[in-house]
Design a protein that fits this description.
The protein has about 150 residues and is mostly helical. The chain contains four helices and five strands; from the N terminus they run ααβαββββα. Keywords: Membrane, Metal-binding, Transmembrane, Transmembrane helix, Zinc, Zinc-finger.
Length: about 150
Amino acid sequence: MADDHSLKTSHMAIVLGIGLGVVMLIVLSLLLTIVVNRRDRQTFMRQRKNPDERLRNLDAVSPTRTLEQWWTTTKGKMGLSEAVDGQFVCAVCLEQVNRSEEIRELKCLHVFHRECLEKWYLGDHYNCPLCHRPYFVVDNPPRNDYVWMV
C-alpha cells in the first residue's frame, strides 16, 4: 500500500514536471515572438518615417521627367506614327497628364503623375496600379504583427 502511494506520487510529480516544462516552453516562445515582432516593427516604422530615403529607392526604378520628354523617346522606340496623340490619364488620380507635368514611368511603360506614384509607393504599394507588375522588391517586407506558433 505504501509502495502504491509512493508510485502514484512519483507519477504525479512526473506529469506535473512535464506539464510545467511544456508551459514554460510556450511562455518562452511567446516572449521570443513578441520581442522579434517588436524589433521588426520598429525597423519597419523607422523606414516609414523617412520618406525621402524611400523615394530615392523609387528614383532608381522610376526616374522623373516630363511627359513630353518621355513621349518623344518612347514614341520612336515603339514605332508609333505621328498621328498618335499621346494623351495619358493617370490611373491613380484619374486626371489627364499634361505634356509639361512631371511623370514617373514604370518598366511596364505605364505613366503616372510623379506625385501620384510617390503617394502610391509610400502607401506600401510596390506594384503598378494598372497591371500589378512589381516594380520594386522590398528588402524587408512588412510582416504581420504576430507570428503564429504551430
